[in-house]
Design the sequence.
């Protein structure tokens, strides 16, 4: 196996035809995104813990008082008008939603795990147990993310093991893979061969990328380049310990601008703290509270870059929507096609508030379809 000679030879690696109309007509066309249908022949009938910092998500970071982020666009508390028939042409790559209610739509979880042994006082989680939980909660499919870096979780769940663990459920579980960026010291070709092996075994994306480096650390450039070459979306975790960034997310913006061909799915405290503009350093590892008076960098980056998405999992994602419900409603109406439903389910019996989204907020079915499954499907390799 060898690394592709250039990013432009994707036809040799992929059989999916490119649909020139696949992009959202309201956004610039992404460089590499492809729309992939759910596994052919598999019907998808409708039916807060997490991989946060090694300390408990309930724990508060030590108070810090660096300058606040610059003020940006004021929040309009009245809900943005929802899309109505005739105001926007339908997306040509997506069939009309065939459902009468939100619960009739497929539900695709962008963020779950399987764990081989007990950790943090919680029992392990097998693929069979994960699927049983999905059946109970009406989840049709789920992305399963490995932990390959030692910072990721007290118990590693490496990519090779995750691929083996989920193999018995190909119609329900969608594996991702990851590679610790420090292994690049062994050489780009060797690491590319390892990655190719994961892809041949069914990996559909890269992540969870959760490593103790700055998000724009030069050691990560090789990972970003590999994901560009192999057209892999990256689901990453950013907080005060992993893929760190400054207030205002300048490092992330530099990465988005440098790798426009890579789709980045943002997850955890460092991203979701920026729903509001009044962010301090301590918020990047905590759960900011209170109403949102001024929109933060999350809104701006989603508007300015077509290669960044938001993963709604964990308490951080839930808090971003519910700390100010009126603002959360506007956010969902504005960016439903750039958000993916996720739970970060890690252990048996874990509480997951994200299932309450569909009762607490009011969206058109087309918008719910994006958030529940269509956007995630469009990101998969």
Sequence:
């Amino acid at each position: 196996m060898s690394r592709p000679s250039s990013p432009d030879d994707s036809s040799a690696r992929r059989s999916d035809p490119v649909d020139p109309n696949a992009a959202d007509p309201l956004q610039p066309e992404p460089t590499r995104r492809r729309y992939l249908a759910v596994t052919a022949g598999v019907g998808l009938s409708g039916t807060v813990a997490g991989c946060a910092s090694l300390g408990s998500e309930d724990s508060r970071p030590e108070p810090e008082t660096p300058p606040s982020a610059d003020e940006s666009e004021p929040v309009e508390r009245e809900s943005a008008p929802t899309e109505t028939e005739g105001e926007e042409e339908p997306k040509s790559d997506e069939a009309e939603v065939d459902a009468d209610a939100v619960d009739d739509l497929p539900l695709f979880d962008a963020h779950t795990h399987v764990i081989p042994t007990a950790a943090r006082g919680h029992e392990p989680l097998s693929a069979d147990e994960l699927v049983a939980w999905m059946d109970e909660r009406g989840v049709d499919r789920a992305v399963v993310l490995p932990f390959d870096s030692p910072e990721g979780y007290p118990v590693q769940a490496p990519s090779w093991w995750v691929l083996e663990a989920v193999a018995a459920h190909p119609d329900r579980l969608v594996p991702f893979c990851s590679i610790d960026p420090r292994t690049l010291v062994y050489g780009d070709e060797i690491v590319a061969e390892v990655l190719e092996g994961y892809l041949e075994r069914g990996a559909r994306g890269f992540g969870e990328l959760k490593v103790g480096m700055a998000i724009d650390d030069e050691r990560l450039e090789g990972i970003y380049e590999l994901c560009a070459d192999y057209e892999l979306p990256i689901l990453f975790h950013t907080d005060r310990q992993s893929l760190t960034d400054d207030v205002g997310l300048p490092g992330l913006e530099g990465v988005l601008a440098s790798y426009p061909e890579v789709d980045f799915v943002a997850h955890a405290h460092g991203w979701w703290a920026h729903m509001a503009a009044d962010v301090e350093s301590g918020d990047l590892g905590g759960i900011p509270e209170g109403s949102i008076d001024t929109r933060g960098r999350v809104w701006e980056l989603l508007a300015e870059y077509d290669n960044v998405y938001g993963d709604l999992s964990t308490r951080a994602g839930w808090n971003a929507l519910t700390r100010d419900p009126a603002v959360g409603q506007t956010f969902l109406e504005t960016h439903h096609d750039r958000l993916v439903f996720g739970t970060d389910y890690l252990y048996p019996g874990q509480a997951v508030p994200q299932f309450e989204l569909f009762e607490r907020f009011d969206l058109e079915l087309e918008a719910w379809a994006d958030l529940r499954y269509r956007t995630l499907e469009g990101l998969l390799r």
